[in-house]
Design brief:
Layout: E1 4-8, H1 19-26, E2 31-38, H2 43-58, E3 64-65, H3 70-79, E4 82-89, H4 100-106, E5 109-113, H5 135-147, E6 150-152, H6 158-167, E7 172-174, H7 191-199, E8 203-206, H8 210-213, H9 220-234, E9 239-241, H10 262-265, H11 286-296, H12 301-320
Parallel strand pairs: 1-2, 2-4, 3-4, 4-5, 5-6, 6-7, 7-8, 8-9
Helix pairs in contact: 9-11, 11-12
């Protein structure tokens, strides 16, 4: 079985510490997808981060590999390495050019969503006015499908997610999203969205962020409660994990260059207060407690393995292997 972390965030700085990656490896995780850019980050920030992360990972082949296939992740599991992939959070780094998707894919970006909380020319964000997928957005979905990249709907508003799932010819995922029925927050998703994701063959990955779980100090049992809700609604084969931990280093400033307004991207009226500085996260070590927590909510061994990674591996095997460009 594969242990698959669908989304986490190192500081967006070329010199970000890889200590969290080592903790993931120690916790028994085999694949981690780390963010390399959001809608508020210009290419002048994203590309140095991506270049540095790639170079540093490839400089330690005994510890890490950058996967192109699920077989690569299987190899990492068998050899004690950690497979590290990349994701983009938002379409602005694509510069309104669908061909940019395949370029990022070739650099190791294997997962992308189209709007980070706010609307753009491609898609609508979850903390903005309902917009839906634009004509350019439909072309972008096709580009993501053609490139064999995972189409992600996290941070994206309800109407847009439903449009994406209607237009995608491959399974769609939410890499870090929780049921709105259990925690009232604009980042969480409705039963309609969960069912639509499952109908594509996709996976909803539960986030370990306090506000999205509806608790103050997230633990494994909090995640298991949300997992159980989705599993009861659409089946355990459609649930995964994306703890969405935001790591920071006091000595590194990874804010976007120039004028940057955190209150725009994380609006106070949506419950963020001081941006995301007050967020609490389930720690990496939660991974080690999750098997027992999932069994405690009634899951058998096969379902537990699915939630912890085999479900995402199934979808990635289908999507990554379907590149047509």
């Amino acid at each position: 079985m594969i242990r698959w972390e669908a989304h986490t965030c190192l500081p967006l700085h070329p010199d970000a510490s890889f200590e969290p990656l080592e903790r993931y490896r120690t916790a028994g995780v085999h694949h981690v997808c780390i963010n390399v850019g959001m809608d508020m980050n210009p290419l002048s920030q994203i590309l140095p981060v991506l270049a540095a992360f790639r170079a540093r990972l490839r400089a330690e082949p005994g510890r890490y590999l950058i996967p192109s296939t699920v077989a690569d992740i299987e190899h990492a599991r068998k050899t004690g390495k950690l497979a590290v992939g990349f994701d983009l959070e938002g379409a602005l780094p694509l510069l309104e050019r669908p061909e940019m998707v395949a370029l990022y894919r070739d650099l190791g970006v294997r997962q992308i969503h189209f709007a980070y909380n706010r609307n753009n020319s491609v898609a609508g964000g979850c903390h903005d006015q309902p917009q839906g997928l634009t004509a350019l957005g439909r072309r972008m979905v096709q580009a993501v499908n053609d490139a064999g990249v995972l189409m992600d709907c996290a941070h994206t508003e309800r109407r847009t997610t439903l449009d994406i799932m209607a237009h995608s010819r491959h399974p769609v995922v939410f890499s870090h999203a929780n049921p709105l029925a259990l925690a009232e927050h604009g980042r969480n998703i409705t039963d309609e969205q969960i069912r639509a994701c499952a109908a594509t063959g996709g996976v909803v990955c539960i986030s370990g962020v306090s506000k999205f779980l509806g608790c103050e100090a997230p633990q494994a049992n909090d995640l298991a409660r949300h997992v159980a809700y989705v599993a009861d609604l659409v089946g355990a084969q459609h649930v995964g994990l994306g703890l969405d931990i935001g790591f920071s280093q006091a000595e590194l400033n990874d804010d976007p260059p120039g004028a940057f307004d955190p209150g725009f991207w994380w609006p106070a009226q949506a419950g963020y207060g001081r941006g995301i500085s007050q967020m609490r996260y389930a720690p990496i070590e939660t991974w080690q407690a999750l098997p027992d927590a999932l069994r405690a909510v009634g899951m058998g061994s096969r379902d537990v393995d699915g939630v912890l990674g085999d479900n995402m591996a199934r979808v990635a095997r289908q999507v990554w292997g379907a590149a047509t460009d």
